[in-house]
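Entry for the shared binder. Reason: the reviewer on the internal report wants the predicted structure included alongside the sequence.
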Amino acid sequence: MSDRHISQHFETLAIHAGNTADPVTGAVVPPIYQVSTYKQDGVGGLRGGYEYSRSANPTRTALEENLAALEGGRRGLAFASGLAAEDCLLRTLLSPGDHVVIPDDAYGGTFRLFAKVVARWGVEWSVADTSDPASVRAALTPKTKIVWVETPSNPLLGITDIAVVAQIARDAGARLVVDNTFATPYLQQPLALGADVVVHSLTKYMGGHSDVVGGALVVGDAALGEELAFHQNAMGAVAGPFDSWLVLRGTKTLSVRMDRHSENAAKVVDMLTRHPRVTRVLYPGLPDHPGHEIAAKQMRSFGGMVSFLVEGGEEAAVEVCNRAQVFTLGESLGGVESLIEHPGRMTHASVAGSALEVPGALVRLSVGIENVDDLLEDLQQALGRS
């Protein structure tokens, strides 16, 4: 029986999809196949299609099946990092002279890939406010092949109406790519809303424990999946078996973790909105957030990422980051532990001086699953109680 027919409920799929019991021992957790090559039953006689672990590995296969099921896609592909997944996607879909629309609020690594790497082989890009359909339309050219979206975005927590922008991209003959890292498939499923490709940094919520680096692509079109799989093998930046096993472990608890992340974040936001040193809170769960209604429509809840601006500018924001104790000062996000960072000097330093530059007074939180009272106490002391 296919994993796809086990259940339509996310929580059940997360535990069972791809996680077939080992046929030899009955082990309920797929083994770590730490192997590079496989014995063949005669020349060309592959057992289960496995010949070399760059091309396929049973542990990675289990993860890829799990990812496809969770996103409601036809094919999932796991990579050594989120940027490796993005690189494979771009080199599969683009040729010199093509054009891409990227968001004006994007992860710094994604911007660097477009501005410093992809542009060198003749791909053009332009920036749009993807929360504004008119801005997306204005950025399109006859050469546009991809519209790239993050929702919620990193680090300003902007929201894009996936269904609307998907239609705009289709009308222009382009594909919509959605980075679903912040939301995860538990909170949001872009393929069901019309996206062509979903991108993940598996390092974040999908792994969930700050102990693995990985990336993924999930598509709804089987032919596109085959094309991406060819390039994945040809380029070689695949997820290793142990990393695949770690992420597969993480996805099993994704739903309960995301519920706790979202619950804690909502209480953190409530405190921040009332703190005199906080000038603005960016969180799609707030009724006055410009994307609140869209987020409520396309997301299960509003997630664990929170950004805010503090009075006193950049130096004050840096001081808040340095004073935190329960919140760990560090890059990345999505682990069980809470993290705090200064995007302008850390994760988004690469966008300085560009249209994507972030405010100096901005602080970004990845709200973990600790006791929320401890998190609130820590933020209050970091901000100062006056």
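Summary line for the report: The chain has a mean pLDDT of 95.
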